[in-house]
Amino acid sequence: MHIVKVPLAGGNTTEIQVPEGIYKIACSLPYGHRFYFVTDTGEEIPIAKLAQKRARPDGIANAALLMQKASSGMIPKREPISVTLLENGLFLVLDGNSTVTIARMASWPAVWCKRKP
Predict the structure, then answer these.
(1) Does domain 2-115 fall into CATH 3.40.1350?
(2) Which pLDDT does position 83 carry in this prediction?
(3) Mean of pLDDT values over 2-17
(4) Burial class of residue 109 in the structure, from the number of CB atoms within 10 Å of its CB (0-12 exposed, 13-18 middle, 19+ buried)
(5) Rounded distance, CA 48 to CA 55, Å?
(6) pLDDT tens-place string over residues 104-113
């Protein structure tokens, strides 16, 4: 098991345990929005600017497998991560928290997002 730190909204951080196999899949996913996301709308937002609502181990395991399949063309790409701008200049992840956690594990500099009001 690997311990992964996830920054949450409000300045808190949570630690989650990720199984070795899922951690290896996550870390092996190459950076490149075109592999995982529909990119006809949205924008790249630095991962350091994203605050998550939650981090669920089951969701993270599922996201890693889906991202692996999407990158190989086995399944359709997902819509951009839904975010909303917070007063402190960070973006709260509304939908796609597990995908963002995977991106953090893979050390991506940014994630493809779509702003919501």
Answers:
(1) no
(2) 98
(3) 91
(4) exposed
(5) 16
(6) 999 999 999 9
